[in-house]
Design goal:
The structure holds 2 protein chains of 2 kinds.
Chain A lengths: L2 H14 L5 H15 L3
Chain B lengths: L1 E8 L7 E5 L8 E6 L5 H13 L16 H6 L5 E12 L2 E14 L2 E13 L2 E2 L2 H7 L5 H4 E3 L12 H11 L2 H28 L5 H105 L9 H9 L14 H12 L3 H57 L3 H101 L4 E4 L5 E5 L2 E2 L4 H25 L14 E4 L7 H14 L3 E5 L6 H7 L3 E11 L10 E4 L2 E4 L1 E3 L4 E7 L2
Parallel strand pairs in B: 3-13, 3-14, 8-12, 12-13, 14-17
Antiparallel strand pairs in B: 1-2, 1-4, 4-5, 5-6, 6-7, 9-10, 10-11, 14-18, 15-16
Helix pairs in contact in B: 6-11, 7-10, 7-11, 8-9, 11-12, 12-13, 13-14
Classes of the chains: A mainly alpha, B alpha/beta.
Chain lengths: 39, 681
C-alpha cells in the first residue's frame, strides 16, 4: 500500500463516516492498513 | 449544500402550512425574504437551523422553547396537544435530502411543554442518521452560514479567535487532517504495542540458528559418509559377486574332477570286468566253445553222412566195422583219397577201426555230438553278446573320460593357476570383503542412528525457526505498518501545515484585497498564527470600528465559502484534496447599521461569492441601488405578511417598494400571525 493511498483512505473514512465514533473510525483505518500491508 | 424548499407548519409566528422555495439556479442564486421587523425573519433562520440539526431549543431567538404558533396555542385548552413541523429539503454532492422535524406541544398551565421530538431524515429517499447531516455541515459552523448580521462582528472578536480557527480548519478540511494524524498516531501506537508483545512472547535469540547450523553440518557430513560407505559397499558387493562366480567355477572344476575320478573308477571297474569276462569267455570258449565252433562241422558231417546214406554209400545208421575193413582193403579213405599202407589215412582208418565196435555206435556218437553242439550254440551267442556290451560300455566310459579331460583342460586354462590356491585366495578375499562390508554396515547403522537423532533435533529446531520466521515476518509486517503510519502522519502534517499556512496567507491576501476593493481602504487584514483577524494600517495594528468588524466578518465568511467551493471543485481522486463542500449563506439583516456604501459593498460581495444566498431583509434595508446590484441574480422573492390586530385603525403600514411596485408587509387581522407569500416580479 502506498502512503498517499493510505492518506486518501484515512481522509475518506473520516469524511464519509462522521456518524461513527473515533474508535470505530480508527478500527476502519487500521483494517485498511492491515489489508494493505500483510503477508 | 444548496437549499431547495422550506415548509413550516404552525412553527412560531407561522400559522398553518407555509412554504418557501429557494433558488438553486447558479445564475439566479439569490433568494430574498422580506419582512417587517418582528414578523418572522429570524424565525426563518431559526427554522432552517432547527430543520438541519433538530436541537430541542431554538437558536437565534430569545423564545427558545416556543415552537408552537401562538394562535394555535391560544385556541388550545390546558392539556391539549398540537404538532409543530418543519420540513427542509436540500441537495448536496448529487444527493437529495429531506429532513422532517416534528415536536408535540402540550398546553400546560398556559405554557408550552414540548415533548416527543421526532425526526425523519432521508437521503435519496433512504433513511440516514443525523450524523450524516452533521458531516455535510458541522453544527459548530452554523453561525458562519446562518447568521444574524446584527451580531456578526462578534465573529471577528479578537477574544474569540477560536471561532475563526474552527471555521477555517473545519471548512478547509484541515481538521480532517488533524483527526487523521491523531488516528494514525493511535494506530501506530497499537502496532508498536503489538510489536513489543510479539517480541516479548517470542524470547528467542540466535542460538537456535547456530544449533541448526551445527546439526545441519553434522547431518551433511554423516550423509556424505553414508554415501561414501554405500559406494564402498557396492564396490565390495561387486567384488564378492566376482569371487562368487570364480568360486562357482572352482566348484565346477572340483565337481568335474570328482566326476572324472568317478568315471575313472568306473572305467577301472569296467576294465576289470571286461578282463574277467574275457577270461570267462576264454574259459567258456575253451570248455564249451568248441561245441559252438564245431557245430557247423558236425552239421556238415551229418549232412555229408546223410547224403552218403541217401546215395547208399553209407549204411543208413552209423559206420560199420565192415565198411572200414572194406576201405582198408580197397586202400581208399573215407574221404575218398587212395592211400598206402602205413600212411596217415591208413593209420586213421586203422585207429578208427580199433575204436569202432560197430557201425551203429559211431553213428550214434556223431549224432550225440551234433545234439550237444546244437544245445551250446546259444551259449556261445550269449557270451558274445555280453562281451560286445562290455566293449560298448568301455567305449562310452572312455569317451566320457575324454570329454571330462577336455573340459578340465579348458577350465584349467581359464584358471591358469592352481585351483586349490585360487579357491583359498578367493575365500580369504571373500572373508576379508565380508568383514569390511559388515564393518561398513555397522558404521552406517550408527550413522543412520545419529542421523535420526539429528533429524529429530533439526525438526524441532526447524519448527522453532519456522515459528521465528513467522514471527520475524510478523515483526516485519508490523514494522512496515508502523513505517506506513509514520509516513502518512508526515505527509498529513506537511499537508496540514501547507494548507494552514497557504490558507492563512491566501485568506490574508484575499481579505486585504476585498477590504480594499469594497472599502477603498489601505488597511491590511491578516490572520496571525493564533488565527486572530488583524487589521493593520501602516504596519501597525489598527482599531476596528464595529462597521469594519462586520464587514471583515462578512468578507471572511464569504471568502471561506468561496475557498471551500474552490477546493470542492478542484478535488480529484488522485490528489489529497478531498474537497470542502459547497455552502449557502443565510443572512438575517446583513446590513445592520451600515450606511449605503457599506450596503452596496456587502451586496456586491455577497452576490459574487456565495453559490446560494438567502437574504432576510426588512423593507427599510432595500432600495433601488440594491435592485441594481442584485439585478438578474434575484430569483425567488417572498414577503412575510404580518397579520396584526393592532393595525385596525393604523394606516401607516410597512410597505415594501420593489421594482416600482408596493407590497404590504403587514395587514390587519383579528389575530396575530404571519403568512408567507411569493412575490412574482
Amino acid at each position: 500500500m502506498e502512503v498517499n493511498e493510505l492518506v486518501k483512505k484515512v481522509l475518506k473514512i473520516i469524511k464519509e463516516n462522521k456518524e461513527l465514533s473515533s474508535k470505530d473510525k480508527e478500527k476502519l483505518i487500521k483494517a485498511e492498513i492491515e489489508k494493505g500491508v500483510k503477508k | 449544500m444548496i437549499f431547495q424548499k422550506l415548509i413550516l407548519n404552525n412553527f412560531r409566528q407561522f400559522e398553518g402550512r407555509q412554504e418557501i422555495k429557494f433558488s438553486n439556479n447558479q445564475n439566479k442564486h439569490i433568494s430574498v425574504i422580506f419582512a417587517a421587523n418582528g414578523v418572522g425573519k429570524t424565525t426563518i433562520l431559526s427554522s432552517i437551523v432547527w430543520g438541519l440539526y433538530g436541537d430541542k431549543k431554538l437558536n437565534y431567538t430569545e423564545f427558545e422553547n416556543e415552537f408552537l404558533n401562538k394562535n394555535v396555542f391560544n385556541s388550545m385548552n390546558d392539556g391539549d396537544v398540537s404538532n409543530v413541523e418543519v420540513i427542509l429539503s436540500f441537495e448536496d454532492n448529487g444527493h437529495n435530502y429531506i429532513i422532517e422535524r416534528k415536536v408535540k406541544v402540550k398546553k400546560d398551565n398556559n405554557k408550552q411543554y414540548n415533548f416527543d421530538f421526532e425526526s425523519k431524515i432521508l437521503m435519496d429517499n433512504k433513511p440516514i442518521s443525523q450524523k450524516e447531516i452533521n458531516s455535510i455541515l458541522s453544527p459548530d459552523l452554523k453561525e458562519y452560514f446562518f447568521f444574524d448580521g446584527e451580531g456578526i462582528d462578534k465573529l471577528v472578536d479578537y477574544r474569540k479567535p477560536k471561532l475563526v480557527e474552527t471555521a477555517i480548519k473545519n471548512v478547509m478540511q484541515i481538521d480532517d487532517f488533524e483527526t487523521g494524524i491523531k488516528y494514525l498516531k493511535n494506530i501506530k501506537k497499537e502496532f508498536e504495542q503489538d510489536l513489543i508483545s510479539l517480541k516479548e512472547e517470542k524470547g528467542i535469540d540466535n542460538q537456535l540458528d547456530r544449533n541448526k547450523f551445527e546439526l545441519e553440518n553434522r547431518l551433511d557430513s554423516n550423509l556424505q559418509q553414508l554415501d561414501k560407505n554405500k559406494k564402498e559397499i557396492t564396490k565390495i558387493e561387486d567384488e564378492l559377486e566376482k569371487i562368487k562366480i570364480e568360486l562357482l567355477k572352482v566348484k565346477e572344476i572340483k565337481e568335474k574332477y570328482s566326476q572324472k575320478l568317478k568315471l575313472e573308477e568306473n572305467l577301472k571297474s569296467l576294465t576289470d570286468n571286461l578282463k574277467k569276462l574275457d577270461n570267462e569267455y576264454v574259459k567258456i570258449f575253451i570248455d564249451k566253445g568248441y561245441l559252438g565252433l564245431s557245430y557247423k562241422l558236425f552239421n556238415e558231417v551229418d549232412e555229408f553222412l546223410e547224403e552218403k546214406r541217401e546215395k547208399g554209400e553209407l549204411p543208413l545208421i552209423g559206420i560199420s566195422k565192415n565198411y572200414i575193413e572194406k576201405l582198408l582193403q580197397n586202400k581208399e579213405c573215407i574221404c575218398g583219397e587212395k592211400f598206402e599202407e602205413g600212411d596217415i589215412h591208413y593209420q586213421n582208418l586203422k585207429n578208427l577201426l580199433s575204436k569202432t565196435t560197430s557201425k551203429n555206435e559211431i553213428e550214434k556218437k556223431i549224432s550225440n555230438l551234433s545234439v550237444l553242439a546244437e544245445s551250446n550254440k546259444n551259449l556261445n551267442i550269449e557270451i558274445k553278446s555280453q562281451l560286445d556290451e562290455i566293449m560298448d560300455n568301455k567305449d562310452i566310459i572312455l569317451q566320457s573320460i575324454n570329454n571330462i579331460e577336455e573340459e578340465l583342460e579348458l577350465l584349467q586354462s581359464e584358471i591358469k593357476e592352481d585351483i586349490s590356491k585360487k579357491e583359498d585366495k578367493l575365500l580369504d578375499k571373500e572373508i576379508e570383503l565380508n568383514e569390511k562390508k559388515d564393518n561398513l554396515f555397522i558404521l552406517n547403522g550408527s550413522l543412520n542412528k545419529d542421523n535420526e537423532i539429528i533429524k529429530k533435533d533439526l525438526d524441532k529446531i526447524i519448527k522453532q525457526l519456522n515459528s521465528i520466521k513467522e514471527y520475524q515476518e510478523d515483526i516485519q509486517i508490523l514494522n512496515d505498518r508502523i513505517k506506513l503510519c509514520e509516513e502518512a502522519i508526515l505527509i498529513m502534517e506537511k499537508e496540514k501545515l501547507n494548507r494552514t499556512t497557504t490558507i492563512r496567507k491566501e485568506f490574508s491576501n484575499v481579505l486585504t484585497d476585498r477590504f480594499d476593493k469594497f472599502l477603498h481602504s489601505s488597511k491590511k487584514i491578516r490572520i496571525d498564527d493564533k488565527f486572530h483577524l488583524i487589521i493593520e494600517e501602516n504596519g501597525k495594528s489598527s482599531a476596528k470600528s464595529r462597521g469594519e468588524a462586520k464587514l471583515i466578518s462578512l468578507i471572511f465568511i464569504s471568502t471561506l465559502v468561496e475557498k471551500a467551493r474552490e477546493l470542492e471543485l478542484q478535488k480529484t481522486n488522485d490528489s489529497l484534496n478531498i474537497g470542502a463542500g459547497i455552502y449557502p449563506m443565510v443572512i438575517d439583516s446583513p446590513y445592520g447599521e451600515f450606511d449605503e456604501i457599506y450596503k452596496q459593498t456587502i451586496s456586491r460581495l455577497i452576490k459574487e461569492l456565495a453559490p446560494q444566498v438567502i437574504l432576510l431583509l426588512n423593507q427599510a434595508q432595500w432600495n433601488t441601488d440594491l435592485e441594481t446590484i442584485f439585478g438578474d441574480s434575484l430569483a425567488n422573492i417572498y414577503r412575510i405578511v404580518g397579520h396584526r390586530p393592532k393595525l385596525k385603525n393604523i394606516t401607516n403600514k410597512n410597505i415594501l417598494k420593489l421594482y416600482n411596485k408596493e407590497y404590504e408587509l403587514e395587514v390587519y387581522d383579528t389575530k396575530e400571525w404571519s403568512s408567507i407569500e411569493r412575490i412574482e416580479l
